[in-house]
Amino acid sequence: MLMQTHEARLDALRRELKHRELDGFVIPISDEHMSEYVGAYAQRLAWLTGFGGSAGSAVVLGNAAAIFVDGRYTVQVRDQVDEKLFEYRSVPKDTIGGWIVENAAEGARIGYDAWLHTKRWVETVQKQLDKKGAKLVPVDGNPIDAVWQDRPAPSDAPALIHAQEVAGRSSAEKRAEIAEWLKAEGHDAAVISALDSIAWVLNIRGQDVEHTPVALSYLVAHADGTAELFIAPEKVSPELTQHLGNAVTIRERSGFPDALEGYSGKSVSVDPNYGAAAIAQLLEKGGAKVSFDRDPTILPKAVKNPVEQQGHRDAQARDGAAVARFLRWIELNAPSGEIDELTAAAKLKEFREAHGDLRDLSFDTISAAGPHAALPHYKVDEDSNIPIPPSSIYLVDSGGQYQDGTTDITRTVWVGPGEPTQEMRDRYTRVLKGHITIDSAIFPSGTAGSQLDSFARQYLWQAGVDYAHGTGHGVGSFLSVHEGPQRIAKAAGGQAGTDQELLAGMILSNEPGYYKQGHFGIRIENLVLVEPRKIEGAEGDYFGFENLTFVPIDRRLVDKSMLSPAEIAWWDSYHAKVYALLSPQLEGDDLAWLEGQCAPL
C-alpha cells in the first residue's frame, strides 16, 4: 500500500535510517547536477514534507526533524509542511550543521547523498559537526528512494539537436575553446555536470526538466577537443549521433561513476558549485588530481553571440504580442471578480501557444492577486488559488521557452473598477523610476552588477522601503531562465555573481519591486542586453543596456507628477517602440487597445 501521509513517509524513512545504522539524514532539493529546477524523480523533499518551493532542505533525526527555507518561502512552508513533523528554520540565520549539533547525540552518524551536495557543503557542515564529535556519512543509495514506492523514473525523452542556425556557433568550436583553456591551465580534462552547460557545448536540448530544455547526462571534455557524453541509450537517436560527430564518444550514463575512477595520474577540473561531492570523491579514489575551477563554459555561455542576440529579439517580439493580448483580456474580464489566478495563468499560456512555436513555459507562472502579489515567489496551485478581486493590484511574472530565445517578463496592473490608492501609485512610480534608471544606465568596463543595484533601489529607499530580492539575473538562450554568472544584486554576504563584471552580450533581467505584506505587491521586469556605448571623448570602454522586452506598462498606476521630464521622455520613447514592434502582430480590438496603451504619457 502506498504511503499517503507525510507522517507515514517520515516514519518509513526513520525505520530505513535505523536499518542502515544512521542517526540522521539530510534531504536537499537537488539533483546530481546541482540544478535549480529538478525532475519529478528528484523531488525527494516535496515527497517527504509536502513543501513545493524550489529551494530548501530538511534534516531528519530519530526524534526530531527540521525544514530550512529562506525568506522567500516563510509563508509557503507554513502552509504546506506540518509543524508537528518538521520545525521551521530560516536560512541563512539557521544552519543545517548548527541544528544537528543542537539536536543530535554525541558521535551521531548523519547520512548524506554525495550526488546531491557539493564538496564545499560537505566540508562546511562537517566542520560544524566536529564540535559534537558527529560525522557525515555518504550513503550507498539514497534512503528516501528505498522507501518512496511510486517514485517516478527519470525522464526517457530523447535528446534533441539545437541547430547551428539558432546556436550561432558549432559544438566543435566550443569544444576547441574548452581545450585551449584546459591546456593553458595544465589540465587533461574537465567534468561538466551542469545540464545547461552540456546542452550549450554540444548544441543539444532536451525535455527532462520542467521548464528547462536539457537532457540528463554528464560530459567529460578533453584537452584534445574530444569529449565523452554519458547519457541513457534510449535518449540517443541516429540523428543525434550524427550531429555529435566522431569527436564525441557516447557512453552509458550508468557507467559515469566507474569512468571517473579511470583518471589515475591525470589533472581533472571540476566546478565547485555544480560538481557533486561524489564526482571529486570518485576521481580522488582513482588517483586523479582534482582541481576546482569554474566550469569553462559558464562565461562563454553567458555572452550571447550575434545569432543568439537576434534570436532573443525575435522571440521577445512574438512573446510580447501574446502578453499584450493577455493584458487586454485581464483588463476586460478581471473586474467581474470571476477570473481566478489559475484561470489567468492558463489563459496567458493559451495566448503564447497561439503562435505555434512555444516549446514550454520558462518557469511556473506567478499569477498573483491581491495579497498574493506581496509574495515575490508565490506559486499558485489548487489550494492557494483565489479569484482576482475587483479594485486591486494583479501581478503576473511569466516567460516562454522558444527555440530562438527564453523570455521572462513581469507586469503589475490595476484591476478596476475604481482607482488605485495614492500609496499604490507612489510605490509603483518609485519602482518604475528604478526600472528606468537601470535601463538608462551607462557604466565603464569592469563594472559588476552589484555596483548598479542601488540605482534601482534609491527611490524606494527615499521613502524608507526596499525589496528583499535581487534586481536582475542572467538569462539563457533557449536554456535556463536563471543563468549565471552575472547578477544585479546587493553584494552583501558574497552572493554568487554579484562581483561578475558585466560584459557585452550578457542578458539580464531588470526587475525592481515593492511588497506590502498582506496587501499588494509591485514588480516591473524587462530583459536587457549589455552593449557597448560610444561616448565622445570617453576615456576607456563604456557600456549600456539595449531593452529586449516590449509590452505596455500600466499607466493607471503611475503618478506622473513624480516623474522627471527625462523619465516621461523614456516612457514615451519606450511605448512608441512597443507600438512599432507589436502593432503588425495585432488586429481589431487588440490593436485599438495597444494604441491607447502606447499613447504619450
TrEMBL record:
It is an enzyme of class 3 (hydrolase). One of its GO terms (molecular function) is aminopeptidase activity. It holds the Pfam family Creatinase_N_2. Keywords: Aminopeptidase, Hydrolase, Metal-binding, Protease. InterPro entries: Creatin/AminoP/Spt16_N, Creatinase/aminopeptidase-like, Creatinase_N, Pept_M24, Pept_M24B, Peptidase_M24_C, X-Pro_aminopeptidase_P. The keyword Hydrolase applies. Residues 312-531 form the Peptidase M24 domain. Residues 542-601 form the Peptidase M24 C-terminal domain. It comes from the Bacteria. Residues 9-141 form the Creatinase N-terminal domain. Its EC number is 3.4.11.-. Belongs to the peptidase M24B family. This is Aminopeptidase P family protein. It comes from Altererythrobacter arenosus.
